[in-house]
Amino acid sequence: MPNNAIHISLRQDAPIPLAVELSCAGGEILVLVGPSGSGKTTLLRAIAGLLNPAQGRIECNGETWLDTAAGTRIPLQQRRVGMVFQHYALFPHLTAQENIAIALGHLNPAQREPRTRELLELVHLKNLDRRLPTQLSGGQQQRVAVARALARDPRVLLLDEPFSAVDQQTRRKLVRELAQLRGRLNIPIIHVTHDLNEARQIADRICIIHHGAALQIDTPDAIMGRPKNSRVASLIGHYNIFEGTIAAHDANAGETRLSWAGLELQTPYRPEFAAGQKVEWVIPEDQMVLHQRRRPSAGERENPVIGVIEECTQLGHNTNIAMKPRHCEILLNFTVPAHVARRNDLREGEEIGVSLLQQGIHLMEKS
Amino acid sequence: MMDWQALKLSLLLGGCTAALLLPCAVIVSRWLAWRRFRGRNLAQAAIALPLILPPTVLGYFLLTSFGNQSPVGAAFNALFGEGLVFSFQGLLLASFIFNIPFAVQPMQNAFRTIPNDLREAAWCCGLNGWRTFWKIELPLAWPGILSALVLTFAHTLGEFGVVLMVGGNIPGETRTIAIAIYDRVQAFDNRSAGLMSAVLLLISMTAITLMYAFNDRLDRRRAE
Fold first, then answer.
1. Is residue A147's pLDDT more than 90?
2. Which of A59, A87, A206, A345 is the most exposed place for a label (fewest CB within 10 A)?
3. Min CA distance, B66 vs chain A (Å)?
4. What's the number of CA atoms in the CB half-sphere (13 Å) around residue B92?
């Protein structure tokens, strides 16, 4: 990995557990995703030096910031960290310009003013430099916070839920600006959010955090399509997670057959699992196709499951269906547009069929 | 007749008390505002004690601990060649002690309202503890610190019981304006007592009004 990367390896049991090993390259956006209380902010604070983990090593741009084994701990003032706090933490008694200039202590006084102007321009706030934070909108405050974080000429940019306090429209704009900014900065950007959609939009890689542990680090597509285990799958919003047993492999057909609920499902070829092995599997709800009652189609031959509708709930333009396959106590959940539910006369107690698309089924090691 | 000497002494005492308390109270109040430690409640109770203790009780304890036989009095005598009892220095020390809650409590509240992430943001901007104090904490806590100083000053002008117990009534040394008023009433000189009371009232009222006006202006400027 190039020199301007950051490598982090942290471990502690208390007060907040941490078990994390990750790297982020220059120019890369790594998004830490996890529910609230999962330790993602703690991790960010440990990188910044705002808290001291029991054990660990942080190396950034070739400098060792933390090495508990060697007793090295660079004070946070000397770590070149740009931090954007969740509620921005702008200094309320200082103007936008002063908020930025205060972080320019490393420059000589003559360079500070032009650099402040440059940063204000970078975040499109040239004409609002004399305003106090209370006189700025949420989006403008966020931009001041970003400019202030960049003022130190940081070696890593840390963003703690930077879009959580602004409305949807501003958020879209700020997300776009962050993407543009990344092109100009060749430093690692570590971004914390609990919003998976936000993470998928901006991340080069996503790190799923739970109870302080990094469960999976991968590209958004890989995380969404191939979660490592059922915990990751449920954290990223899958609810069709089931247990099954590998029945057989068929290398010629390029498929693995899975016994589940008295059925044998065709799934993508995964020879690393032995026949007879218990596995967990997941299917995203968009990989389930409802059998049309009047016009059966070819796709219905793929892993058909017949069952009875247990629950049918309309939510806005969509209808959530919970279906109980024949002879078992499992529920399959999927969503169809409300008009489809109406046209097919989907009601509780009705028998329906769905096909589980083979390519959508993902097998996972049992956790 | 106005006892100008007593007024001057009171103003001097008030000013010196406020000046001495300022740095000490800033340190203690920051500590109480942000640190959680064993015995914190006990420390807060001890600081608040002068608020509820009868001035004569506080004065009695101070008087006995200031005597030349006591360790404090003896140490002071050895250092400066003077006693603490019935002297301006003793009065100042007593004034310092009974004003601690008036100085610490408003400052503690002021520091407590500074969100923790502001200090952390300052550190992340590269500011060390000292610069964070000057650039961030002090400007934000300033209204509370000013209130503390004005309250200390005004309260010193008005304190009677402790001053009488520790300082007595020595003109130019320990006779403050409050003592002088009492002295005049005892001598049936109601005209002088009334005049001095009016002056004391005016000074105290002016100081506190200025404090409120200043804080109000600051609030409005920040809210704009």
1. yes
2. A345
3. 45
4. 17
Contact A256, A273 (CB under 8 A): yes
| Interchain contact, A83 vs B135, CB within 8 Å | no
Check CB contact under 8 Å for A85 and B126: no
| Cβ pair A18, A53 in contact under 8 A | yes
Mean pLDDT score of chain B: 90
Q: How far is B139 from chain A (nearest CA, A)?
A: 7
Cβ pair A209, A40 in contact under 8 A: yes
Is A83 an interface residue toward B (CB < 8 Å)? yes
The whole-number pLDDT of residue A300 equals: 67
Q: Can you tell me the mean pLDDT for A329-349?
A: 90
pLDDT band at A158 (very low <50, low <70, confident <90, very high): very high
**B36, B117, B119, B125: best to mutate for the A interface, most A CBs within 10 A:** B125
Q: Given strand A304-315, what is the order of strands in its sheet? A: A288-290, A351-356, A304-315, A318-325, A332-337
Q: How many CB atoms are closer than 10 A to CB A326?
A: 12
Q: How many Cα atoms within 13 Å fall on the side-chain side of residue A294?
A: 5
Question: Nearest CB to B125: which of A87, A93, A103?
Answer: A103
Confirm or reject contact between A130 and chain B (CB < 8 A): no
Enumerate the H helices of A152-252 as residue ranges: 168-184, 196-202, 220-225, 230-235
Closest C-alpha among A225, A207, A226, A227 to residue A217: A207
Identify which of A179, A119, A202, A126 has the alpha carbon closest to the alpha carbon of residue A154: A119
A152 part of contact set with chain B, CB < 8 Å: yes
Are B117 and A135 a contacting pair at CB < 8 A? no
Q: Is A190 helix (H, G, I), strand (E, B) or coil?
A: strand
The owner of tokens 């003793």 is: B90
Q: Which amino acid is at A43?
A: L
CA distance to partner chain A, nearest, from residue B52 (Å): 36
User: Could you give the CA distance from residue B87 to residue B80 in angstroms, rounded to a whole number?
Assistant: 12
